[in-house]
Amino acid sequence: MKSRFSKDILIFSLVAFCFTESVFSAPKKKKTDSKKGGGQVTATYDNSEDLQLNAAETPEEETIMLPMQKRTYFYKVEPEILAGVENGSPESLRLAMSKIRKNESEYEANEKVLIYVASKIMAKVWPSEKITWEVFDVADDNPYVGALNSVEKGVFDSSTGNEDFLTTLLPALLVVSPSFDLSLSSQCKNALEAALNRNSSSVVANYLMGVLLEKQSNISGAVLFYKKAYESTNNSKEIALAYSKALRTAGDTKTAAEVISAVSNENDLDVIKQKAYIAFENRELEKAEAYVGRVLQQNPTELEFVLFRAKILVEKNDYIHAVYLLDMYARQESSSHDYLILRARVQLDWSKNMTAATETVEKALQLYPDSIDALMLAARISSITDSPVAGQYADDLAAKVLEKNPGNEIALSYALAGLVQRENWKDAYEISKKLIESSNVDSNSVYNHVLICTQLQKYSEAYEFSKKQHEKNPEDEQLLMAYVLAYTHTGNRDAVVKYIDSLIETSSPKMKSYLYYRRSYLQFSEDKVLADLRSSLISNPRNSDSLLRLYEIYYGKQDYRKAQYYLRQVVAINPNDSSVKKLNEALTKLIN
Length: 592
Fold this sequence. Notes:
Strand content: under 5%
Number of strands: 2
Helix content: 55-70%
Distance between the termini: 150 Å
Largest sheet: 2 strands, antiparallel
Oligomer: single chain
Structural class: mainly alpha
Shape: elongated
């Protein structure tokens, strides 16, 4: 009997083992959620907790997971709600919070954490939006709250594990902090790139990447991310402001105006300010001044817009009112970049006080050595005075601008003027070639190029170029002057004199003065030279070229008194030309 009993036990054990193996080795089927349009929803898990569900907890139709899978912290939250928080736009956050709303006693701990995360995103990224849902106190024993606490301290939390979209994104909320440390840019950028790899359509991730790139001065990159965020949301003030500002900085003021005009709250002060800046960039000065007036009406002492109004008035050449505002501003702040630039412009263009303008620009360069505006003003002053500003001449100052913007034609023109003043014809020729290759070459650039070519004895180039330009626009006096200048160096002397004579009677006083001046170089006797120069001055007493030639003639004859008489008139006409001043000082010493 004992042997038979043992045998029965053995058979039973073998049958039980086979049954167990067949059950647990069978393939598991995933549950299809018919509520989501036929798509499959499969829970995943984090590294802290294996799946442990018994038959009592799991209905027959529930998903049966593989033993090694991990569930996420928010595995009990509806996927639509979690997706709304991950999208992170104001409207998606509000919608997600409306779907998760229930009685406080019914919330799971992780649902309260998700609500806390949504609230922090709304408060930090979209501060103009109101939080319309209840927020609960939550423990900080999870990576989400831990990352947000680190953000409050200005620290990038690298210990979140990056297990899901939110643990990857949240540390990068640092970029919207007013005191954001640029040394953290690389970490934040890596986090945002990883988050976008997980969810490329997330509005908050695209917006934060735009903010970061803008702070790194990558405006073109910022525009792309702002654009995606803008096109994926509805009327967000923060996105519209950031996108329009980046567009304005990139030079697309038309699109910037369209973006900001779509913001529903037209009375919002930030929106009004942005509209003022865009209108100014579009040269709509009256509209810009009206927006600035609305800002100052709400806040009369806002220094930024006191200065902005002065800037608009300077552009309108209303210097009297501009100076009043500049004086008002200077009582509280006298070293800001924009103030110094505006003050220098007023001193230069209105007061005509070259010394004061130079001192102001030098102060601006000392405080802001890389300022394009300061460098351009300094180059302009140097090109006028033929003197160094902050120890450098116009061509050197303009070169710094051209390093950043090689196509800046105004900087090229300042550099050229300085080189011509100092008679550096070789270097002037190289810059002049760049200017005349422009599609919108002006008559002044044409004349300068012809002058430079004649100084370098490139007579054929000067003639062919000036003839072509004159034929395009025969009514332009500057182009005619350039052609006459080139012709006097290449044509037969008698033919040139005959051509000039044919023009004199019908020319304007300014043109007639120039023709007499050019003809004086073709005369054989001194009497005829002097006669032409006097005729030139009768037509235009302020022709400094004719006055300077008379100075040279009498100086050569050692008639210093007459030479000084004409030279002093040149100084009066060009009081800021240091080279003429030096000639006059030397002549005065010689006479005395």
